[in-house]
Amino acid sequence: MQIYWTKINKIIEEAPEVRTYLLDCPKDYTWEEGAHIHFALEGFNAGDKPNRSLIRHMSISTLPQSNLIGITTRIKEQCSEFKAILRNLEVGNEVAIFKTHSNIPLKREDKNVYLLSSGVGLATFRPLVLDYFERADNVHQIHSLNIDSSKDFLFTNIFKTAPEKKFTSQFVDNRKDYYEEVKNLAADKDGQFYVVGSDEFLVQNIEVLRGQGIKPEQIMLDKHKQQRLKFLSYDLSV
């Protein structure tokens, strides 16, 4: 396993408690849209075993052609050791990245794509939308639905409805409206549904989608194959 040490190039305050850390991209380092990365802080590998409290899986919110690796995360006042250290890092500080993997690249199968996310989970979908804007081949249209109770909606410069691009974007701030809209979107029985958020959020969305007749193979999760099967394998009749 190769570990890349790289520097923070820029820090963007996206919203209260939400920051994007733009990291210098190591030479020949690349990834697919929808990828996640192991993001680690100084000292994580100082002992005999890795200090897992200093490592997190993070989605990459940028595309490779930007030549910057974007990590967008929420840092609350009361937070973990990892987030507390991250909050105090500055431009020029070093961090480590390794083990890049993509579970949800944009499928181009001539269907409608629905992106369902909660809060900062929208960062995972940002590169999918950017990729679609650059090349819309074999995607009929994309609809993004995001729930964020803070009402500080993210990336509104990108996630805004653009009919000419066959892209629509919705933000809601409560669960009732969100799940009603998921049911409406599930009227498309041939659509592809991407879901990103907490495990609880995934389970609730899967339950609603399956209840509307959406098949497991139409639901894409940011999970490894075995985890994905576990989420999608429960019996709705029980």
> How are the strands of the largest sheet arranged?
4-3-6-1-2-5
Estimated share of beta-strand residues: 25-35%
Structural class: alpha/beta
Average pLDDT rating: 94
Total count of domains: 2
The N- to C-terminal Cα distance equals: 43 Å
**Total beta strand runs:** 11
Estimated helix fraction: 10-25%
Main beta sheet: 6 strands, antiparallel
Question: Could you walk me through the main structural features you see in this protein, from its secondary elements to its overall organization?
Answer:
It is built from 5 helices and 11 strands. The protein is of the alpha/beta class and 238 residues long. The radius of gyration is 18 Å and the shape is globular. The longest helix is centred in the middle third of the chain and has 13 residues, at 122-134. The chain has a 6-stranded antiparallel sheet with strand order 4-3-6-1-2-5, with no helix packed on it. Strand 7, helix 2 and strand 8 (139-147) form a beta-alpha-beta unit. It has 2 domains: 4-102, Translation factors (Elongation Factor Tu (Ef-tu), domain 3, Beta Barrel), CATH 2.40.30; 111-232, 3-Layer(aba) Sandwich (Rossmann fold), CATH 3.40.50. InterPro entries: FNR_nucleotide-bd, Riboflavin_synthase-like_b-brl. This is Dihydropteridine reductase.
